[in-house]
Amino acid sequence: MRTIGIFALVAAAGLAACGQSGGDDAANTTANAPPPVKKHPTYCFFKDAATRAWSASPDASGNVSVKGQVKVDDRRYRGDLGQSEVAGDTASVWLTMAPNTGYSDEDNWWDVAITVPGSTAVASVTVLCGKKEVAKLKIRRG
Protein backbone atom coordinates (compact mmCIF):
# COMPACT_ATOMS: atom_id res chain seq x y z
CA MET A 1 0.00 0.00 0.00
CA ARG A 2 2.81 2.35 0.86
CA THR A 3 4.45 1.66 -2.53
CA ILE A 4 1.29 2.66 -4.38
CA GLY A 5 1.15 5.99 -2.47
CA ILE A 6 4.76 6.79 -3.30
CA PHE A 7 4.21 5.79 -6.93
CA ALA A 8 1.12 8.04 -7.16
CA LEU A 9 3.07 10.95 -5.67
CA VAL A 10 5.95 10.52 -8.14
CA ALA A 11 3.51 10.23 -11.06
CA ALA A 12 1.67 13.41 -10.00
CA ALA A 13 4.93 15.32 -9.71
CA GLY A 14 6.03 14.07 -13.12
CA LEU A 15 2.76 15.14 -14.76
CA ALA A 16 2.92 18.56 -13.11
CA ALA A 17 6.40 19.10 -14.52
CA CYS A 18 5.20 18.32 -18.05
CA GLY A 19 3.08 21.46 -18.14
CA GLN A 20 5.90 23.89 -17.31
CA SER A 21 7.28 26.00 -20.13
CA GLY A 22 10.83 26.18 -18.82
CA GLY A 23 10.93 29.98 -18.77
CA ASP A 24 11.16 30.42 -22.55
CA ASP A 25 8.35 33.00 -22.46
CA ALA A 26 10.51 35.46 -20.54
CA ALA A 27 13.42 34.95 -22.93
CA ASN A 28 11.19 35.49 -25.96
CA THR A 29 9.69 38.63 -24.45
CA THR A 30 13.16 40.06 -23.80
CA ALA A 31 14.40 39.15 -27.28
CA ASN A 32 11.39 40.74 -28.99
CA ALA A 33 11.32 43.91 -26.86
CA PRO A 34 12.28 47.19 -28.56
CA PRO A 35 15.73 48.51 -27.70
CA PRO A 36 15.79 50.75 -24.64
CA VAL A 37 15.45 54.47 -25.28
CA LYS A 38 18.78 56.26 -24.80
CA LYS A 39 18.51 58.66 -21.90
CA HIS A 40 20.22 62.02 -22.29
CA PRO A 41 21.21 64.35 -19.48
CA THR A 42 18.25 66.48 -18.39
CA TYR A 43 19.98 68.87 -15.99
CA CYS A 44 22.43 71.61 -16.96
CA PHE A 45 25.28 72.47 -14.58
CA PHE A 46 26.53 75.40 -16.68
CA LYS A 47 25.35 79.00 -16.98
CA ASP A 48 25.41 80.70 -20.40
CA ALA A 49 28.49 82.73 -19.46
CA ALA A 50 30.35 79.50 -18.60
CA THR A 51 30.51 78.27 -22.22
CA ARG A 52 32.35 79.77 -25.19
CA ALA A 53 34.29 79.24 -28.43
CA TRP A 54 32.06 76.59 -30.03
CA SER A 55 33.04 75.26 -33.45
CA ALA A 56 32.23 72.27 -35.63
CA SER A 57 34.06 70.97 -38.67
CA PRO A 58 34.47 67.69 -40.55
CA ASP A 59 37.51 65.59 -39.65
CA ALA A 60 39.65 63.64 -42.13
CA SER A 61 37.09 60.83 -42.40
CA GLY A 62 34.14 63.22 -42.88
CA ASN A 63 32.65 62.84 -39.38
CA VAL A 64 31.85 66.03 -37.47
CA SER A 65 34.19 67.19 -34.72
CA VAL A 66 32.72 69.61 -32.15
CA LYS A 67 34.93 71.75 -29.91
CA GLY A 68 34.30 74.35 -27.24
CA GLN A 69 35.21 75.53 -23.78
CA VAL A 70 33.35 75.37 -20.47
CA LYS A 71 34.13 76.88 -17.08
CA VAL A 72 33.83 74.75 -13.95
CA ASP A 73 34.53 76.55 -10.67
CA ASP A 74 34.77 73.34 -8.62
CA ARG A 75 38.17 71.83 -9.47
CA ARG A 76 36.94 68.33 -8.59
CA TYR A 77 34.99 68.34 -11.86
CA ARG A 78 35.59 69.08 -15.53
CA GLY A 79 33.37 69.73 -18.51
CA ASP A 80 32.73 66.90 -20.97
CA LEU A 81 30.94 66.30 -24.26
CA GLY A 82 29.82 62.76 -23.52
CA GLN A 83 26.88 61.75 -25.71
CA SER A 84 25.99 62.32 -29.33
CA GLU A 85 23.06 61.51 -31.58
CA VAL A 86 22.54 61.75 -35.34
CA ALA A 87 19.08 62.20 -36.88
CA GLY A 88 19.10 62.79 -40.64
CA ASP A 89 21.24 65.82 -41.48
CA THR A 90 21.39 67.11 -37.89
CA ALA A 91 23.38 65.96 -34.89
CA SER A 92 23.16 66.73 -31.19
CA VAL A 93 25.84 66.55 -28.52
CA TRP A 94 25.32 66.87 -24.76
CA LEU A 95 27.50 68.91 -22.44
CA THR A 96 27.93 67.30 -19.03
CA MET A 97 30.13 67.45 -15.97
CA ALA A 98 32.54 64.58 -15.17
CA PRO A 99 34.95 63.91 -12.30
CA ASN A 100 38.37 65.50 -12.73
CA THR A 101 40.97 62.75 -12.58
CA GLY A 102 43.92 64.91 -13.64
CA TYR A 103 45.02 68.50 -13.42
CA SER A 104 42.96 71.65 -13.21
CA ASP A 105 43.53 74.70 -15.37
CA GLU A 106 44.33 77.86 -13.42
CA ASP A 107 41.34 79.82 -14.71
CA ASN A 108 39.00 76.75 -14.66
CA TRP A 109 38.22 76.79 -18.41
CA TRP A 110 38.18 73.28 -19.92
CA ASP A 111 38.61 72.42 -23.59
CA VAL A 112 35.92 69.93 -24.57
CA ALA A 113 35.67 68.02 -27.83
CA ILE A 114 33.86 65.08 -29.38
CA THR A 115 33.78 63.45 -32.79
CA VAL A 116 30.27 62.33 -33.71
CA PRO A 117 30.36 58.84 -35.28
CA GLY A 118 28.27 58.31 -38.42
CA SER A 119 27.94 62.03 -39.09
CA THR A 120 29.29 62.28 -42.64
CA ALA A 121 25.95 63.64 -43.94
CA VAL A 122 25.33 66.07 -41.07
CA ALA A 123 24.84 69.75 -41.99
CA SER A 124 24.31 71.20 -38.49
CA VAL A 125 25.07 70.33 -34.87
CA THR A 126 23.25 71.43 -31.74
CA VAL A 127 25.17 71.55 -28.47
CA LEU A 128 22.76 70.88 -25.61
CA CYS A 129 23.17 71.21 -21.87
CA GLY A 130 20.32 69.21 -20.42
CA LYS A 131 17.34 70.46 -22.41
CA LYS A 132 18.88 73.92 -22.99
CA GLU A 133 20.43 74.78 -26.36
CA VAL A 134 23.95 76.13 -25.86
CA ALA A 135 25.02 76.49 -29.52
CA LYS A 136 23.70 75.78 -33.01
CA LEU A 137 26.57 75.18 -35.45
CA LYS A 138 26.58 74.88 -39.25
CA ILE A 139 29.05 72.48 -40.89
CA ARG A 140 31.06 73.76 -43.86
CA ARG A 141 32.01 70.94 -46.18
CA GLY A 142 34.05 71.00 -49.35
Overview of this structure, please?
- The protein folds into two domains: 2-32, no CATH class; 48-138, no CATH class.
- The chain has two helices and seven strands; from the N terminus they run ααβββββββ.
- The chain has helices at 2-18, 24-32, and strands at 51-58, 64-71, 77-87, 90-99, 109-116, 124-129, 132-138.
- The strands form two sheets. The protein has a four-stranded mixed sheet, with no helix packed on it. A three-stranded antiparallel sheet has the order 1-2-5, with no helix packed on it.
- β6 (124-129) and β7 form a beta hairpin.
- The protein is elongated.
- The termini are far apart.
- The model has no long low-confidence stretch (mean pLDDT 83).
Helix content: 10-25%
Element order, helices and strands?
Answer: HHEEEEEEE
N- and C-termini, Cα separation: 93 Å
The biggest sheet, with number of strands, parallel, antiparallel or mixed sense and barrel status, is: 4 strands, mixed
- The quaternary organization reads as single chain
Number of helices: 2
Features:
41% strand; 142 residues; 2 helices; single chain; alpha+beta; 2 domains; three-stranded antiparallel β-sheet; 7 strands
Question: How do you describe this structure in short?
Answer:
The protein has 142 residues and is an alpha+beta fold. The protein has helices at residues 2-18, 24-32; strands at 51-58, 64-71, 77-87, 90-99, 109-116, 124-129, 132-138.
